[in-house]
Design a protein that fits this description.
This protein has helices spanning 26-37, 56-68, 85-94, 107-115, 121-134, and strands at 5-8, 11-14, 17-23, 45-50, 75-79, 99-103. With 161 residues, the chain is of the alpha/beta class.
Length: 161
């Protein structure tokens, strides 16, 4: 793989590749979602959809080819489910490379990853994990600012969640 170097002012930094591997069609769908928000990220994000009934060895060959197209020295690999075929293939894919693997990819994680992909790989892993967990929450049916005041609210405080 060739190192992709970008310049910004007096400092140089390295762009991490982001490789999504998941059950078909999730990887491609997540990539399309990211490109909807970050259309300039097309060259730094690759996806590989693991097809049903394809042997793991054949899946690994396809994943190696797809990841090589990123042309980056470091890659963060995001898989959908720990223990499933995409993650198992990804474990073999990153073995011996300057790459990290996270299972449980979701869109908030991916958006955070794209935003900070110029950071060191270990820092990017921490950002991805934070984005993934912080992006999962229960949401009130009615937004607090749209809720009516309680009739017995002597202090005239808005109803809060």
């Amino acid at each position: 793989m060739t190192l992709v170097r970008h310049r910004s002012g007096p400092h140089s930094y390295y762009m991490n590749g982001i490789f999504i591997i998941a059950h078909a069609p999730l990887a491609s769908a997540l990539r399309q979602c990211v490109l909807h928000v970050f259309p300039d990220g097309e060259t730094g994000v690759a996806a590989f959809d693991v097809q049903p009934n394809v042997p793991p060895e054949e899946t690994l060959k396809g994943a190696v080819q797809a990841m090589a197209m990123l042309n980056t020295a470091q890659t963060l690999v995001l898989a959908d489910v720990f223990g499933a075929t995409p993650c198992n293939v990804a474990q073999k894919l990153v073995d011996g490379l300057n790459s990290k693997l996270i299972a449980g990819v979701n869109l908030p994680m991916l958006l955070r990853t794209i935003t900070y992909r110029r950071e060191a790989l270990d820092s990017l892993v921490a950002r991805a994990l934070a984005g993934g967990t912080q992006g999962v929450m229960q949401v009130a049916v009615t937004a607090p600012q749209n809720q009516v005041r309680k009739k017995n609210d002597q202090s005239k405080h808005d109803h809060q969640q």
